[in-house]
User: What shape does this take?
Amino acid sequence: MKKLEEKPFAMIGVNCNNFDAKKLKAAVEKHNLNWRSFADQGAINEKWNSPPTPTYYVLDHKGVIRFKWVGAPGEKALDSALDKLIQEAEKDTKKPK
Amino acid sequence: MTHIGGILVLLLGLPVAARDEPQPAEQYKTLVKEFGVAAQGLWNATTDDERMKAAERVAKSTPQLLELAEKNPNEPFAFDALVQVITQELWLENNTLHPGFGKDSPSVRALAILTRDHIKSDKLSDATRRVQYGFRKECETFLRTVMEKSPHKEVQALACLRLAQFLSARLQRLDILKDKPELAKRYEGIFGKDYLEALQRQDRDKAIEEVEGLFEQAAEKYADVKQPFGGTVGERAKSELYEIRNLSVGKVAPDIDGEDQDGKRFKLSDYRGKVVLLYFWSEF
Assistant: This one.
């Protein structure tokens, strides 16, 4: 994931343990997680149909769901999905206005 | 001495011979156990060779189960054995690399017998629960027939819900096959090239419309029917509809507004312009 630092990309977690921010912080530090996560006490899960964990959604730069995996998709599938959408995003921003 | 010995052998011989061939109900139990052992074997397997061995054990016992059910149609276990045939073949399809049974699919035969002999059974939901995870045309036909012909409202309701889930999962699998030529080849081998091509030619939007219609029907007509593992058919159908309409590929992601680990408020939509990997995780 390191190589994506310069790219129009972000990884955002939704924690599904019903933690408040403080408890989430402790978990993030304990497991050395380097991404930003929402602390959820149920509202987000309700809105997203309480997916089993792990579930992965990939949204394009317009906020449209383009990929969805319940369970880990494997590095290859994830990389190729992200590459494809990042290229789309970069192409879109380079367009003359 | 030899004479007496001969009589003894003769007397003992009969019960021994009868014991050699266990009763059909016993054979059924043994075969079900055999599946449990093989499934555990797959779970524990660390090499492809071990995985293949587990698959072969099940591939061997599945036609045996079918034969047992067909030879003993009036035994109480016959119904369960037919469902078990379906369970095992779908297990092979979905968990192993077994190439399928070609034209002699035991599950197709089992579905035909269930339809012919057990369509009025109030236990038929045991079968639809399995069939839901299938892919072939006969699974679809079976679910449609049960929905239409079962005299039991509960059985109809679950068949309706599961038909919608079957059709929805089949569409998702077709999408996955597009990027996985090896898997597509395996599907061709098991389910037939013609069938696969016909599915790929179908109008996707129309197919989704039908899925939505079935979930709507389940939500309205069967709202209060209980599901075997909690909740009602209505609740499940509504949640599936919500998933299709808001959380499927092609839909704008519902916004999220909340706090991060530092207590800072932010929104998912703050990241418009960037590709976002949204990861639902939990600590165990």
About this structure: DSSP finds twelve helices and three strands in chain B. The mean pLDDT of chain B is 92. Chain B touches chain A through 35 residues (CB under 8 Å).
